[in-house]
Amino acid sequence: MNIKELVGRNLGLIRKERSISLERVSELTGVSKSMLSEIEKGATNPTIAVLWKIANGLKIPFSELIKSDQNVFRVVGYESRKIIMENGSGMVYGIHEYDESSKSEMYEQIIYPGCVQTSPPHGESAVEYIYVKNGVMEFTTEKIHELLGTGDSIKFTADSDRSYANKGDDNLEMLIFITYI
User: Fold this and answer.
1) What letter would DSSP give residue 162?
2) In this predicted model, what pLDDT tens digit does every residue of 47-69 receive, in sequence order?
3) Fewest Cβ atoms closer than 10 Å to its Cβ: which of 38, 79, 126, 153?
4) Is 11 exposed, middle or buried (0-12, 13-18, 19+ CB in 10 A)?
5) Are 117 and 90 in contact (CB under 8 A)?
6) What is the pLDDT of residue 72?
7) Cβ distance 176 to 128 under 8 Å?
8) Buried b / exposed e along 40-79 (16+ C-beta atoms within 10 A)
């Protein structure tokens, strides 16, 4: 990841953590909203003076804007998982939200007995890995039809519609890891 992308990602993460708008960051730093937007997109290479204005305005060390998280360590406790989708056929928990540096995310999905969940394409550059923690899953795309059980896993390019059907008597529990190449 180049420095423009790194600064943009870090600024975006800081804003998200603090739940503040670009407009508010502009007020705090004296850097225009449009410039901040370009920085977050990684579309511009900010000067050292601009980076210092941002760091000072947000009251953070300069290094927070240029840090790389190559040595990331993060624990997500079982009870701190976030439900991101729940309906009559199951639920999806966010475990590790999308990470720009690794271009990946991780979920846990539960599908109730006799139910089916469908998923739209993630794109040609997305590869999905599924590990069946418990249960029996029928995995179907236009071209693929597979039955997987507890302990089985599957890897595929997530470029088409697909369905996951619970063919067992217990909840189907899956870990899903998606990477965007």
Assistant:
1) E
2) 888 888 998 899 887 778 877 76
3) 79
4) buried
5) yes
6) 61
7) yes
8) bebebebeeebbebbbebbeeeeeebeeebeeeeeeeeee
Q: Which of 78, 119, 114 is nearest to 95 (CA)?
A: 78
Report DSSP state, residue 80. Answer: G
Q: Given the DSSP bridges, would you call strands 162-166 and 136-140 parallel, antiparallel or unpaired?
A: antiparallel
Residue 179 phi, psi dihedral angles, 5° rounding: -125, 140
The residues that bridge with 155 in the sheet, in sequence order, are 129
Joined together, the tokens standing for residue 64 give: 């927070």
Mean pLDDT of 128-140: 97
81-117 in b/e form (b: 16+ CB < 10 A) is: eeeeeeeebbbbbbbeeebbeeebbbbbbbbbeebeb
Task: Output the pTM of the full model.
Answer: 0.61
